[in-house]
Fold:
Amino acid sequence: MEFTINAVRLHLISMPLVHFFETSFGRTYTRDMILVEVESSGVSGWGEVTCGEHPFYNEEWTEGAWLLLRDYIAPAVIGRSFASPAAVADRLPKVRGHNMAKGGLEAACWDLAARLEGEPLWKTIGAGARREIPCGVSIGIQDSIPQLLEKIRRELEAGYQRIKVKIKPGWDVNVMREIRREFPDILLMGDANSAYTLADIDHLRQLDEFNLMMLEQPLAHDEIIDHAPLQAALKTPICLDECIRSAHHAEQALRLDAGRIINIKLGRVGGFSEAKRIHDLCQQRGIPVWCGGMLEAGIGRAHNIALASLPNFTLPGDVSASRRYWKRDIIDPWVETTPRGTIELRDEPGFGYPLDHEFLKTVRVREQDCAAR
Structure:
C-alpha cells in the first residue's frame, strides 16, 4: 500500500538492565536506545535502533546513530511517498554502513504500513509460518562459574529451549566443560563476539568435545574468508553474525563454507527487507537461521518476534521475555514466554504490543522532530 511519511520523531531513552551483561568487549549496565517514530495520516509506526552505547559490536553507537538519523536518514524520507515499506531502503541516502540507524527507520515504516492496513506486522512481512517462536537465552560472562551455572539452571527452569554462553580467551573451554558436567543434554552454544584469530584453531578445536549446537562469530567482526579454514578444522558448526550485513555477504560465506548457520539480526542487516533476502537465500541453500538479540526494549523485541516467524527460523533465537532484562518495559503487556519456552504471536495491528506512554515519558531523555531536506 502507498503511504506518505509526514513526520519522523526521534526518542532517546535510557533504561538500566536488571543485571549487567558482559561480552568479550565489555560490560553493559544501562541501555541507551533510540526509538524512531514515523507518522502518516495521523498513524505512527515505531522502530528501535539496536546499536550499543559504544562502537564495540560494530562501528555504530547511540549518539552517532542519532546524528545520522537526524541529519541524513530522516530528512531523506519526510514528505516522500512509498509504494510499500519494501521501497524505503532503496530511497535512503547513500550513507556507507550504519545499518542499525537505517534499520530503525526502515522497521518503523513496516510497522506503520501494518497499522495502516490494520494487520499484525508478521503478516505484513509475509511471516507467520508458526504461531509460537521457540526461545533461547544469551547469558553473558559472569564473575564465576558457579554463578554462571546457577543462571543457566534458572533459565532452564523457566522453560528456555537453548542456552547461549558468551566466551572469550580464558573463559571458554574450562567453562564449557563445567556446563556439560552439570547439564550434559541441554542445547548449548558459545558466542565469541570476534574474540579469536586463526592462531587459535587448536584451542578452539577443544570445543568439539562438548557437542555444541554452534560456535558464533569466533573471528573478526568483518571477517568472512578466514572462517572457512576454521570451519574446515572444526566439527562444531560455525554461526556467522557480525560479518553478515547483507544477502551478498551471506552468499559469499556460503560459497566458501565459512559457516553453516547464520544469525540474522534485524538492525545489523538494515531492516526487514534485507533480513528477508538473507532468510530466503539460506532457505534455498538449506542453511538454518535464527534471530539474534541486541538487548532490545519492547519495540525491538516485538519486531524480532515477527521476524522469527518466517519459515526458515528453525533454531531457537535470542528472543526472550522482557523481565529477563528490564524491571519495567516500554510496552504493556510485556513480552512473556510460555512454559514451553516459546513466545506466541499476537494479532493486534503493527508489532502487536501497546506502548506504555506514561512509562516512556519517565525514561525518555531526549526527543526531536526531524526536518525535511
About this structure: The domain at 124-344 is CATH 3.20.20.120 (TIM Barrel). The two ends are 24 Å apart (CA to CA). The first strand starts at residue 3 and ends at 4. The chain has a mean pLDDT of 96.
